[in-house]
Each structure stands twice: as C-alpha cells, then as structure tokens.
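dumping this here so i dont lose it
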C-alpha cells in the first residue's frame, strides 16, 4: 500500500511540472507574438533604425518639407525589403509605434527601401512633429526618433485699386497712416476672408519710411515667404525679395496685371526724385517710380517712371 502511495505522489508531481511548463511556454509564445507585432520584442528580434534613429528635416518652398533618414538593418529582412511609414502630429506624442498609430496621422503608405520623402501641403507658421516607423517582413515595427519643425509664415503681396499720384492729402499729418487706410479698405472689399493682423501699403513714402526698412519699422518677418494671393512664391524671404530679382513675375503670381507705384530703387530704398512730390501730386508736373508686373529682374520694383496723373496699381502687404 505504501508503494502505491509513493507512485501516486510521484505521478501527481510529474503532471504538475508538465502542466506548468506547458502554460509558461504558451504564455511566452503568445506574449512574444503580440510584442513582436507592436515593436516591443527584445532588440535582437527587431529592425534597427540607422544612425540611431536620427531624422533630418529640410523646409522647402510652397509649404513642403523633406525628411531624410538612414535606412535600418534587420537580421531577417534585406535592406531593400524593409518598409517605412511617416507619421505627423501637432504635438510631441508619436515617440513609439503605439503612440504614432494612436496619436499621429500617416502621411505616406509603407515605402520599401526608402531614405527620403517629401511632405507637401503644410500650413504656414505651424509646429509639426514627424516620426518614421520601420517594419521588417515578419511585421516587427520600430520607431525612429521624432523630429519637429515650425514652418515659415507667409506674407501676402496683394493688389488694391488703381490711383493717380495724389493718394495723400497735402494737409496729411501722417501720410503712412493715410495710405495704409486706403489699402485696408481695399482688403475688406476684395479679400474679406483673408485674415491679416498687419497691413501696410507696399510703397516707399520717404527716406525714413521705405520698403527696404519695413522689417525694422513695422515688424515684417524677414524669414517668411512673400507670396501672391494664391500662395505662389514671389520671394523666399525679405532679403530674397530685395536682392535684385524675384522668383515669379507679379502678374504670374496674381498680385497685379499692370504697373504699380513703388517710389523705390532696386534695393527698396526711397527714390526722392520720383515719388509724385511725396504722393500728394496728381499732375503731369511730377513723376512717380513704377514697378513692372512682367519682370523678375530689378525692373519689378524699379521700372520706368510715369507722370503722376497716370493711374497705377497700389500694392500692399498682409501678414
């Protein structure tokens, strides 16, 4: 009888050991499969981002950026078969694969063997965060290191109405304020949906109030693009706008179909001999400097001159 008891005890212990091992193996297998698909398996089983996951970002024209990264490596998948997907967010909340899928928005599909991609259609003066997920052929995913950028803002160069050279009353106490009031009314009429915190007539009024000095005088952002009403880029920055040439003719940008009053030299400084006597004279006794709508060289701002009784377009900045 004692022998039977020993046999039963040994049998129970053996069955318990076998059951425990099977359960551990099953749980471990399930955990491994789940983790593998979410990018949380041990590092040796995951694809590894190149250059420690660093991403470079380059701003481009027209509201686009270019992302550059070093391709990753993986023990089971050839480099050309690794795939990449880019996620975007307005906050720094896309660090891991789970975070990227929960909080971000994919802006590409899964791309094979990629090392660069261009992301178009971004807003002006906006902070964006980007991250890249890398996937091997087994479905294991790992994230790069997020990168962020604040896109450049935008300055619109827009048309007001046509005027002769006597835009300012001779009795004006503040010529700049008076001419800005003219273009402000024009914006409300022609571009009522356009939101602008600042509006300035794009014209040199005097040696102390010239287009060249707008950043210092009125806070015009020097690193923002200058565009036409549809977003076509005229200058990529304030310095680029006044460096002797522009990116696009003003008529092609939708800014003006004809010549416009500038009162300026090619660098945006005031032209005292061609300003319609401080923009108070509308006769043929004085001349005003025109900018050319159909030129990208210095003529765009320092073109020909016209008698002040000629009607020319008045332009303005809106930002």
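and the seq i came up w/
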């Amino acid at each position: 009888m004692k022998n039977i008891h020993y046999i039963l005890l040994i049998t129970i212990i053996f069955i318990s050991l076998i059951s425990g091992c099977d359960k551990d193996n099953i749980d471990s297998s399930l955990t491994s499969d789940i983790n593998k698909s979410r990018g949380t398996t041990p590092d040796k089983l995951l694809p590894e981002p190149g250059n420690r996951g660093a991403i470079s970002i380059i701003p481009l024209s027209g509201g686009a950026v270019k992302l550059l990264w070093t391709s990753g490596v993986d023990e089971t998948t050839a480099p050309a078969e690794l795939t990449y997907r880019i996620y975007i967010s307005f906050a720094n909340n896309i660090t891991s694969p789970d975070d990227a899928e929960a909080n971000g928005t994919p802006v590409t599909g899964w791309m094979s063997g990629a090392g660069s991609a261009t992301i178009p259609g971004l807003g002006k003066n906006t902070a964006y965060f980007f991250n890249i997920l890398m996937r091997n052929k087994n479905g294991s995913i790992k994230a790069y290191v997020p990168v962020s950028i604040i896109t450049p803002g935008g300055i619109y160069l827009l048309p007001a109405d046509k005027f002769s050279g006597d835009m300012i009353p001779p009795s004006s106490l503040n010529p700049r304020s008076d001419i800005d009031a003219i273009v402000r009314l024009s914006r409300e009429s022609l571009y009522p949906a356009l939101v602008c915190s600042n509006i300035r007539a794009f014209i040199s009024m005097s040696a102390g109030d010239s287009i060249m000095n707008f950043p210092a005088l009125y806070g015009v952002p020097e690193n923002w693009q200058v565009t036409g009403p549809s977003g076509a880029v005229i200058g990529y920055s304030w310095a680029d706008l006044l460096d002797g040439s522009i990116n696009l003719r003003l008529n092609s940008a939708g800014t003006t179909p004809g010549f416009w009053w500038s009162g300026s030299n090619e660098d945006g400084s005031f032209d005292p001999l061609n300003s319609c006597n401080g923009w108070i004279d509308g006769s043929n006794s004085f001349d005003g400097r025109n900018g050319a709508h159909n030129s990208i060289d210095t003529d765009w701002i320092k073109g020909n001159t016209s008698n002040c009784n000629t009607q020319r377009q008045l332009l303005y900045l809106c930002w």
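The longest helix spans residues 2-38.
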